[in-house]
Amino acid sequence: MNLKQFSQLLGLSPTTVSRALGGYPEVKEETRLRVREAAIRHGYRPNRRAASLATGRSMAIGHVIPTTLNHEMVNPIFADFIAGAGEIYARAGYDMLLSVVPDGDEERAYRQMADAGSVDGLIVHGPRDADPRIGLLQKTGLPFVVHGRARVDETDYSYVDIDNYRAFQRATDLLLDLGHRRIALLNGVDGMDFARRRRMGFEKALAGRGLTPLPDLMASAEMTEHMAHANAARMLDQSVKPTAFLVSSLIMAIGVRRALEDRGLRMGRDVSVVIHDDMLSYLMNGEEVPIFTATRSSVRAAGRRCAEVLLAQIRSKPDAPIQEVWECELVLGGSTGPVTT
Amino acid sequence: MNLKQFSQLLGLSPTTVSRALGGYPEVKEETRLRVREAAIRHGYRPNRRAASLATGRSMAIGHVIPTTLNHEMVNPIFADFIAGAGEIYARAGYDMLLSVVPDGDEERAYRQMADAGSVDGLIVHGPRDADPRIGLLQKTGLPFVVHGRARVDETDYSYVDIDNYRAFQRATDLLLDLGHRRIALLNGVDGMDFARRRRMGFEKALAGRGLTPLPDLMASAEMTEHMAHANAARMLDQSVKPTAFLVSSLIMAIGVRRALEDRGLRMGRDVSVVIHDDMLSYLMNGEEVPIFTATRSSVRAAGRRCAEVLLAQIRSKPDAPIQEVWECELVLGGSTGPVTT
DNA sequence: GGCATTTTCCAAACCGCTTTGACAAACCGA
DNA sequence: TCGGTTTGTCAAAGCGGTTTGGAAAATGCC
User: Given an 8 Å threshold on Cβ–Cβ distance, is A95 in contact with B90?
Assistant: First the structure.
């Protein structure tokens, strides 16, 4: 059923029907109602592609989600982020176009989406330290919002990020206040912007007490349970064992806990653990009492906000980019305690 | 840059350029090369929407992923499934259209995608016991593949599923062979097809030894760490404690393990645990030696296969649906041992 | 009632591509 | 050299909507 057929059915012109459905004022309210009612009754829905072509807007937002080359791992936060963004898109009548590409191959995916005009805007995931994608997208002129940020000229693009630096500084301070001095940092891979900021916050807090970070107690790796376990195990078997861990995700913390248990150590008593908690729906950090002491920020809320910002930007190209940095909550759970020696 | 401009640039007609790029034989090889080279040099890429409209194919596949109403939870397996499917789509030049909708509201989403012609095919996620979506889609005539299956007339649609029944029967048998008699089942929510099959496999194995399942040792709930922890805790505090757990996912098993630790119980010695392992990239079940004894099947591979089957179906509407049921591996890990009393 | 407005609807152009059918050029054998 | 095939290219007609510029009908005003 296309517009022509449908309008003939109603004895109206395609123009009028299109306007009635589109909510334009040039059509009598009574006619509009008649058209609307008939549309749902006959199951008529304007063809998305044709409408896109005519209006020049594709009513879709592109997400390019990277998978790491070696392990083909896809960051589990995407599920929640996308759920959040999807809520907003659905409400605004936008579709979400997903492209899963191997790490490093993202540029091509972005360029393709831009050139082929299949989307009206883009969300950039997992920004690197100095991410080439941002410059690329600025050139295309396509609206985009970065989840996180990168070092490249921060004034020129929109982003929604959490204050990773402050979060890890505060978390480290908390551990220092508890008397911990040998604190291990299990971080995301080097090169990711968030990992760099977290490390800097960590080092800053240490420096505040006149401590220097120990290379043996710092690891940058993929944020899997397995890698975290391996790294924690290695550190716990060193001569200079850590008394506390600062861990970049809840998934990783599970690996850390496993390493502790393997050695008969009890979390929160023998060894303290602080994590960053993305508040994933299927992996909540306890209920009232958090399992892990954590810096906390909902990645789903970030997804929602990124989508909102992007849509606002598409609707009315604002001259100033929208840049938000969210403060994390710091919640106390059962995984931390005073140092014991 | 559109086709008209681009072809003028080359001194050719739009037709020829389109054909050259499309790989049609009616154009001289030399011309084709010239066109191809110019296309990449000038960054010309046919507009996706216009091409779609002209061909009638939208070159996109729709995924409708449900989030549970109450907890807005999105199943973490989607990330991996989608990564798998995305690989295949990318290779075949298809886009992936994602729609995240609250549980139960999926029908509308499907109908919309179908009516508006925004996709050439659909993947159905998380089929219920007797899922209305399947009948709906059959009526629309849009090709679709179900990840999993439902009870409704299994002969009429394509699916890729694992043998949940056999998997859980075998897992239960394994525990029974180890001497366990009080085996708890922590399953997905009632109403999901896979949960029903798993329960039936479990009950069948018990029946094989003349045992009847104890209602107190069976739970159906959302597959979160938290729910699993709560249910395991409740069971462990009963007078008739389970000596073993059969658990529907690795995430849930983490909750179970936490419940065990809370009580000073050691997994694999005091209490045995068998899980179903979807082989998620960020949550591997150990390396050489699995942490958990498990029935195992890669959900990423399932994503790949679903995509392949769907694309095959789109290319050449076959008269017979493609239906695959994969056997799970049964791997032995450190989480099981003979019953101790 | 007659004219100016406003309201309601329509015909036709256009969005950017694919594809059919036609045509010119090159090639072939006789 | 000439008719008959290929081969390489093109003009034009869709695909299914939206939107501009009018025309017809309805309304308002004096």
Answer: no
